[in-house]
């Protein structure tokens, strides 16, 4: 198992290296001159040359990349062009906690609703419950998240005033107020993934419930809930965990729109404002951090397989 884990970690490092090259290229290929953005409209050639050298832009591209990669690993991400703020603080200490909180709540809501509905659909196969679950899943996956967010704001926020429609309160500062502000954004972001989890859970469990060991468990007189949840659901954890890991990237992408719609100061809104303001170093850092999070989560998913299915353990 250690050899398998080492191989997967090595593959992950290669992927991270490729992503870092792509992220660095994003800044180099972007239109505009970062030196001009920082100096403004009035400057002399000496000031331009001095700042260009201070930023290391007079070095060969390979040297610039290696210096940038070393700075990224050590947390020295530089200063934003326009705001003149420390990028590490903006991304990691201010925006990242908001996005992680929204992602965790949305993912938790998707699992808490998607898995039970998928199980119900599989157990009640070819009944009205199965049809209702299929309609529910299809509606969730087909509904655009940004439109759902606007609809929830208009109905639940404007018409009924039941929930706040913008802003973020850290749950670690005020737990209940934080959850109150996360209700609508979490529903908006999780709806698509609820539908995905329902469909994957149903398809996997329908196949498992036809296996001989399920028939044997029923013949032994075990309760129905135990047959389904212990012998059935336990054996479909791999596809569920896989789809959760793969869809994390979609959740992070969806957070861009969701945070913008609900004015949440997370990485999504930060990237949107950075693109509009041509803060390319800020965009670069946000994209790189998001990619690292997605890759590391999928590494953890790969490493969890031998624990979820003993058949995958080396003998």
Q: What percent of the residues sit in helical stretches (DSSP H or I)?
A: over 70%
Task: Report the C-alpha radius of gyration, rounded.
Answer: 24 Å
Determine the oligomeric state from the structure. Answer: single chain
Give the beta-strand count: 0
Secondary-structure element series = HHHHHHHHHHHHH
The coarse silhouette is globular
**Cα-to-Cα separation, first versus last residue:** 9 Å
Strand residue percentage: under 5%
Structural class: mainly alpha
Number of helices: 13
Averaged pLDDT: 83
Largest sheet: none
Structure description:
Pfam families: BPD_transp_1, BPD_transp_1_N. Its main location: membrane. This is ABC transporter permease. The chain has 315 residues and is an all-alpha fold. The chain has 13 helices and no strands. It has helices at 2-29, 34-39, 45-54, 61-74, 87-123, 128-142, 145-159, 175-208, 212-219, 224-232, 237-261, 267-276, 280-308. The N and C termini lie close together (9 Å).
């Amino acid at each position: 198992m250690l050899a398998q884990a080492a191989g997967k970690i090595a593959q992950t490092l290669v992927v991270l290296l490729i992503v870092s090259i792509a992220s660095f290229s994003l800044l180099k290929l972007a239109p505009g001159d970062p030196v001009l953005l920082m100096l403004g409209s009035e400057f002399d050639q000496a000031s331009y040359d001095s700042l260009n050298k201070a930023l290391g832009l007079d070095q060969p591209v390979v040297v610039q990349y290696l210096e940038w990669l070393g700075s990224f690993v050590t947390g020295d991400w530089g200063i934003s062009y326009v705001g003149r703020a420390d990028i590490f603080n903006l991304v990691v200490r201010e925006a990242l906690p908001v996005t992680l909180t929204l992602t965790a709540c949305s993912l938790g809501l998707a699992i808490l609703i998607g898995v039970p509905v998928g199980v119900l659909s599989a157990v009640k196969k070819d009944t009205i419950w199965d049809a209702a679950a299929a309609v529910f899943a299809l509606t969730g996956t087909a509904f655009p998240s940004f439109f759902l967010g606007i609809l929830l704001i208009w109905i639940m926020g404007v018409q009924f005033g039941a929930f706040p429609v913008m802003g973020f309160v850290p749950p670690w500062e005020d737990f209940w107020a934080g959850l109150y502000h996360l209700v609508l954004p979490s529903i908006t972001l999780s709806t698509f993934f609820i539908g995905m989890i329902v469909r994957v859970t149903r398809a996997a469990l329908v196949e498992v419930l036809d296996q001989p060991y399920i028939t044997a468990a029923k013949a032994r007189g075990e309760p129905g809930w135990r047959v389904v949840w212990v012998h059935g659901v336990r054996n479909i954890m791999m596809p569920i965990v896989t789809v959760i890991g793969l869809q994390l990237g979609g959740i992070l992408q969806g957070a861009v729109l969701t945070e913008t719609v609900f004015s949440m100061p997370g990485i999504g809104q930060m990237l949107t404002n950075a693109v509009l303001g041509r803060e390319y170093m800020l965009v670069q850092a946000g994209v790189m951090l998001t990619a690292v999070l997605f890759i590391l989560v999928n590494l953890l998913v790969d490493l969890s397989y031998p624990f979820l299915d003993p058949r995958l353990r080396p003998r």
